[in-house]
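On clarity, I found the account of how folds are encoded harder to follow than it need be. Since the whole study asks how a given chain folds, the encoding of that fold should be made plain. For the editor and my fellow referees, an illustration may be useful. An entry of this sort, consisting of the sequence and the corresponding backbone structure tokens, reads as follows:

:::
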Amino acid sequence: MTPSWLDEFPARIEALDRAHLRRQRRVITPAGGARLNVNGHSLLAFCSNDYLGLAQHPQLVQAACEAAQIYGIGSGASPMVSGHSAANAALEHELAAFVGLPQALYFYAGFATNASIIPALVGAGDAVFSDALNHACLIDGARLSRAQIHRYAHADLDALGRELAQSTAARKLVMTDAVFSMDGDSADIPGLLALCERYDALLLLDDAHGFGVLGPQGRGSLAAAGLHGPRASRRVLYMATLGKAAGVAGAFVAGDAALVEWLLQKTRSYTFATAAPALLASALRASLRLIEQDDWRRAHLQRLIARLRSGLAAGLQGSHWRLSDSATAIQPLQIGRNDEALAVMEGLRLRGIWVPAIRPPTVPEGTARLRIALSAAHSEADIDLLVDALSALARSPFNPDNLSTSLGNAPCPAS
């Protein structure tokens, strides 16, 4: 029998195992607050992007149920056919008003949004300028566009300025995460906008992890930077996901009316995908009201961030582990080696705590980490439990020979 390349996959999966890079899914059900039942075990979870604790909120559940009675479950078609419900239309108007931009367009999924709007904006002969630590959806969108890609060093505005100055492309698109998902740091939005104004570029701002959390009433990173009005609406295309702080699903883009209309006409993941169901749009409208009204959620989250950082500053003294410099709900604890990061994750699991280990290619080689995600659903006691557990693990010697045995018995497999 002639060998086939299809026979390579078992060996390739084994190679992932040897490098401690194989990922596993978990089966979860919510268990109240910040707890999840994970593969049948109750764990205190620090892994969710539900930053405001809204995903289980009764007002969102009620709004979805009431909409299901009116619209049913599915939308039935693309938004360009019959999928654009009255609920979806109302949500777009409310999203635009919430972020202070002229028009918004609601998508069914965040990754598909960025992967498709970039090719709608630029193409062959144009230029894209991408921060080195941008999310995969931005990277994939740039590749699909066939524009020339300039990858500048993370947060290095001097390097970006040099790249922009040297470019002869007629259309220039600068794209960046507003809050970087694996490091928790924030982009210099005023500095980026100034460069875009100087070199006639459009700024695509992915605020997946800032929307709902940052800025007055949670209006996002653009509002937190004090940018609004004509200046922002002309040069900024604002994108945010709605499955994180908003607690539901989907994403939206907002900006100048002509620009958003162009995206409506030319974005393939909008034109050729079934629209998000109206029940999700209705839940999101309820979520927007809570985001705007419940300042206490953001205040509580900030207290938790300060408590975690203070506790780990003391508890990790003498350890080579390093807590990244982040003021956001994303608090990455850099461990270094893949196997050690997995072992720490397993040590936490044995103490009833779930914090995911993040490894390459999601992060650079040698920077495997625990990605601690905080939520308004956490209590101060929850933070203290995590700090105590990590402090104890930091004092324990790491033995890689014990890793495969401990993980083999784990009801919550390593990711």
Notes: The radius of gyration is 22 Å.
